[in-house]
Write a structure and sequence with these properties.
The protein is built from 17 helices and 12 strands. It has 505 residues and is an alpha+beta fold. A hairpin with a 2-residue loop joins strand 7 and strand 8. The longest helix has 35 residues.
Length: 505
């Protein structure tokens, strides 16, 4: 019979208090009744969960009423602002009472397990805490999800941003004299087949103030592309170009099936400084612009930027992995317990190295990137430093655990021959650790490539730097290009790493 079986067969020692006393004590200090009944672990668990539940409840109540100071005023205002707190209060106090009842039940019936209902109340309470702390609002999510359709469409399918085609315009121009005078109105020479505009009358008066209506002019034109949209632009005598709104909308018209237009337009309001002109009669121009053709497709600037930064991201992850391996391999042997337990000095080295690895690994790569940016400035070098530091700590731990899990037989055999520590590592350890080392290295390379897209958000170089800039500029199509390139790169690297792993592992 094993030791554990003997312990199970031994009768439990009687409780130090009766069931009612245990319940009353648990009302004073939750879980203390269980401890007196010799259910110490269960009592400790209930003490911690009850105290933490009340602490969370008070924190949420205080957060909802930060400007009040009296207890009941704080509670009343918090419940008024967030009625869900009523349910949380009920659940927490119900759990508090159930803990006392469980102490009574445990002693009276000598139960080793608490009721399912008690744990169900605890789970529901913490779920409600998470719901309230997370400010989950399903109604807002459902009603406003439609607002994200256009944005997500740009991110999911951004490829029109990848190609640029130069727009070729055809335009018709007419000159209008303001105000009318006896001086002849200049005409525009139009070649055969070119778009043109004509005005009747070809002179008039501008609107005197915003909202007024100037002289109404009848515009006709022809030789435009049939069915295509024409935008109308004004140019004043001092060279300012602007578009005119009519009835709240910009002047946009499609050409008819013959490539002609026929409409009326009011002369706009425009304030021109008196010292900018000397003539009594001024010439304004109305131009109808139409995209008549597109040039050949060429890669856009955003596409070129994304591809360049993608290559930078891949090499950033590769260099960080390379430097990380160089330093992590020797460190891992110093962090392996089975290799460093020969003497008190090596044991001290072991604990020192493990502690340093734990500290460095607990600090995320993005934080290291922020520190590196302060030291070496913005750019990929800061990203390489950040990823290298975290890679050394992570691979050092993984490598050392692989070393600790090797078969001790070859080590003992090598020791029996009188080999020193270095010979033991070379002939008994290294042959056993090559497969897991390769596997861990490939996995870390994959992580570094993905992390290099993240540290770019804080200036560590790579495509992440572009991604955050495009998001801040609300250029979601360009951001979609970056997301797609990241996704494709990770997928390709996964395929490559699988092939390498199949070959060496």
């Amino acid at each position: 019979m094993t030791e554990s079986e003997k312990i199970l067969k031994e009768p439990r020692k009687p409780s130090r208090v009766s069931a009612p006393v245990a319940a009353i004590i648990s009302l004073i200090i939750p879980g203390s009744g269980h401890m007196l009944a010799r259910f110490f672990n269960r009592g400790l668990f209930f003490l911690f969960t009850t105290l933490s539940s009340f602490a969370l409840l008070w924190w949420r109540i205080r957060e909802a009423a930060t400007r009040d100071y009296e207890f009941w005023a704080i509670v009343n205002k918090a419940i008024h602002l967030q009625p869900v707190l009523i349910l949380l209060i009920v659940l927490v106090f119900l759990f508090y009472l159930l803990v006392a009842f469980d102490a009574y039940r445990t002693i009276s019936k000598n139960k080793d397990k608490s009721s399912v209902f008690l744990y169900a109340v605890l789970i529901i309470a913490y779920f409600m805490f998470g719901w309230q702390i997370g400010e989950i609002n399903l109604y807002k999510f459902v009603t406003q999800i439609g607002d994200a359709k256009s944005l997500m469409g740009k991110v999911i399918w951004p490829w029109q941003e990848a190609v640029y085609r130069e727009e070729i315009y055809s335009s018709g121009l007419v000159k209008i004299q303001i105000p009318c005078s006896e001086a002849p109105i200049p005409t525009v020479d139009v070649s055969e087949g070119e778009a043109y505009l004509l005005a009747d009358p070809a002179c008039g008066v501008l609107a005197e103030q915003e909202g007024d209506i100037g002289t109404r002019i009848h515009i006709t034109g022809g030789n435009f592309e049939p069915g295509e949209i024409i935008e109308f632009w004004w140019e004043d005598p001092i060279g300012n170009v602007f578009r005119q709104r009519q009835e709240g909308e910009y002047m946009i018209l499609p050409a008819d099936e013959n490539g002609e237009v026929d409409f009326e337009i009011n002369l706009p309001y425009r304030l021109i400084p008196s010292d900018a002109i000397d003539e009594e009669s001024l010439i304004w121009e109305l131009e109808g612009r139409q995209i008549s053709a597109y040039g050949p497709p060429v890669p856009s600037e955003n596409l070129k930027l994304a591809m360049g930064k993608l290559v930078e991201t891949i090499f950033l992850g590769m260099m960080a992995t390379f430097f990380g391996i160089i330093f992590a391999v020797p460190v891992s042997f110093l962090a392996a317990r089975n290799l460093m337990s020969a003497s008190p000095i090596t044991v001290v080295i072991y604990y020192l190295v493990r502690t340093i690895l734990n500290i460095f690994r607990s600090i995320e790569s993005m934080i290291w990137a922020v520190i590196a940016v302060v030291v070496v400035g913005l750019g990929p070098f800061a990203g390489i430093l950040a990823l290298t530091i975290h890679t050394i700590a992570a691979l050092g731990k993984l490598y050392s655990e692989a070393i600790e899990s090797i078969d001790p037989g070859p080590i003992e055999a090598i020791h029996a021959t009188g080999a020193n520590w270095l010979q033991t590592v070379v002939y008994a350890v290294i042959p056993q650790i090559v497969p897991p080392f390769v596997s861990f290295t490939i996995y870390r390379w994959d992580i570094n490539v993905r992390m290099s897209t993240v540290i770019g958000l804080v200036g560590g170089g790579g495509i992440g730097f572009l991604l955050i800039q495009w998001i801040r500029l609300l250029d979601y199509r360009a951001a979609g290009l970056a997301v797609w390139f990241i996704t494709i790169t990770v997928a390709v690297l996964d395929f490559v790493s699988a092939a390498i792993r199949k070959r060496f592992v």
